[in-house]
Amino acid sequence: MKKILLALITASSLMTLPLLASAADYVLDDEGGHAFINFKIKHLGYSWLTGRFNTFTGAFNYDAAKVSDTKIIVDIDPASIDSNHAERDRHLKGPEFLNVRKFGKAKFVSTKISDKGNNQLEVVGDLTLLGITKSIVINAEKIGEGKDPWGGYRVGFSGTSRIGLKEFGMEESLGPASTHVDLELHIEGIRQ
Amino acid sequence: MLLNTQNSYGVVTKLLHWLVAIVVFGLFGVGFWMVDLGYYDYWNKLAPHYHKSVGILLLTVMVFRVAWRFFNVTPEPSQVLSPKEKKASHYVHMVLYVAIFGMCVTGYLISTADGRSIQVFNWFSVPALGAFIENQEDIAGNVHEWLSYGLIGLVIMHLLAALKHHFIDRDGILKRMF
Most exposed among A183, B58, B109, B178, judged by the fewest C-beta atoms under 10 Å? Predict the structure, then answer.
């Protein structure tokens, strides 16, 4: 059911994309596992705790010559959070953090993408998490693009951003060193 | 004295009953309190550790208790009870057993969903069997939570019924467990 829903979401995102630009359309290779939404947060200020979201779909259009026309939409299932510890994941999915029973969807929709030169991009977009939509900035880098060995064409990026727990309504204190989460994104799109 | 007879509970059965009673109340209280502990609370790590350790030990006690029940005569219900009361109390006892086992099993399923074993007081560890279903920690966790309320509600009913027999009906039923 979840898979079908996500497929529908992707399909609907894809249908809107061709209207955005004439550039090539890509879907995130979540099927093949070449896209990662990772996060890290300081633990007590002594070390990093890392985790990821396992279930998401996304699509974007991209033309290296006209980066500013790029638009990206990613739908994330917050319940797919995985920090490699079931008890902690349950806590993170609970009402004190992601509250997935109430907010079953997270979403990122880009609003402005600028080419900073040298493969660097600045991606501004709206992140919706726990029903709160806030503009965030992702500092991204294009890693590469070209034909894959199986007859397709791919392009990949990575990016980082930082969000405050409180900004998205997560009030539970994890200590003074752990008020923000760093997002680390690695995505690969397959041209459609 | 150790064993049950046709008309009375033996010492072992009584001890098992009261031990489980105390542990069930204790686990409920600790569980209720520990889920809301702040991250920097000293008990944040220790309370769940003790809760799980005691929970696993309770499971072994319950297995022994059921075995003891099978290898022993079960005393006849008190003759002062009506057939309806006998039946009702019997069902409540059965549901209490099932609920306690259910609490132990769901608790185990939360903590072992990612393949981690459960450390019992650092004496020994109970190996994980891994996840049987998707989102096991969530589903088992929700069942654990709601079943705990159900169990404690039933325990209070059981307790009130015993007190009613002792103080209102004055039929000596409560004394059978002492």
Answer: B178
